[in-house]
Amino acid sequence: MTIAATRPSAVPVPPGGAPDGTAGGRPSRELTAVYVAGAVTALGTQMTLLALPWLVLETTGSATRAGLVFAAQALPMALLGFAGGEVIQRLGARRTMVVSDLVRAPVVALIPLLQILGALDLAVLVAIVVALGALAVPYHAAQRVLAMELLSPHARSLARANSALAGVTNGSAFVGPALAGALIPLVGTTSVVWLDAASFAFSGLLLLRRVPAGRGGAGGSAAGPRGLWAGVRHLYGDWFLSRAMLSTVVFGLMLRTLMITLPVLAFTRFEGDARIGGLLIATDGAGGLVGSVAAYVLATRVAPVRLACTALVCVALPLWTLLVPVPAGVLVVAVGLSSAAAPLANAPLMGLLSARLPDGFGPKVLQAVVTISTLTGPLGFLAAGAVLDRAGVAATLWGVAALATFGSGNLILALRRLRATEDPD
């Protein structure tokens, strides 16, 4: 299946905009609303990611119970992830996002309300967190589906949209917990949760007002492939997408392993200096944010295959530096470069994937991609802990570098074949 066969060759120009759905190089009003809504929602969610366990610690003092709240947030994606495509397909991307936001707002508000009334116990909190996780299952895939429908089908414009959405995620992950940590001593934990509820309400109303009802509308169950596993079947049946998902799983395992290994590396190699461990982890987050901004700038200026291949080399190569006894500053540069290269590779790859999908396949396939990518997280953390305990830091770092090299090499070979046999631009 080629891109040319699944997308029209002529690029439609939206009213008042450029071929990529922008006006004078700027995102359209509708697309800007999608970006802003995503940023506000993600920031509130990341703030609550710290506030809820902190609330448990304040009220019970139990780290085990706080960990249970963390686990409850991931459970719905594991159980219901692939069903998210059905929701998007039937409701449409815009309606899915609006409903998710406007329903999550009062559900989140229940937490501080019940706390004030003295009716919030652990069982109720876990039930609320599970409900929030279930409502969030189709949200991120719906973002990308809606962006696809607001843009032209060219891989470059889709890559730019994906880089913007990745920047929203990386930025909120970097700013949200720090902002929550600063606000909790000033206004209290429950006030931070109230802010999260307000963020969902704002996001839903913004999308309702700024994105017309006809954009991202439901096509009905007949508009795309049927069945819960339709997206997975399409990924498996397309040679390029199956190769891309193999690398996605490998990178998911590698990145989680790296996250756990970095503080252990600082502890063992630099005599337990926590400042170096914190700096390495902060650099990893900051690199992702910088890379997302760079991807947004470069996505429409550099051919997708060229940008992805160059970035993939920069993802893997610096990680071999971790095996060498170099100064801490060199490690920081290596981690930052690898982290920044990841969104530079991901944006064109997601653009190529999105442009490759036949009409009606977006909800199921993109939801499958989001679900598979998310599920690799817990597996990576479990595997990393086992390898560190049994093999040590050095062997784990060898594994990290080898996984990154395999994932990058696999994708580079697939991209070279794509460029030689099809029109990936």
Automatic annotation (TrEMBL):
It is a multi-pass membrane protein. Gene3D superfamilies: MFS general substrate transporter like domains (1.20.1250.20). Residues 1-24 are annotated as: Disordered. Keywords: Cell membrane, Membrane, Transmembrane, Transmembrane helix. It is found in: Cell membrane. Its main location: membrane. The chain crosses the membrane at residues 33-57, 63-84, 163-186, 249-270, 276-298, 305-323, 329-353, 365-388, 394-415. Pfam families: MFS_1 (PF07690). CDD domains: MFS_MefA_like. It comes from Kitasatospora terrestris. InterPro entries: MFS, MFS_trans_sf. This is MFS transporter.
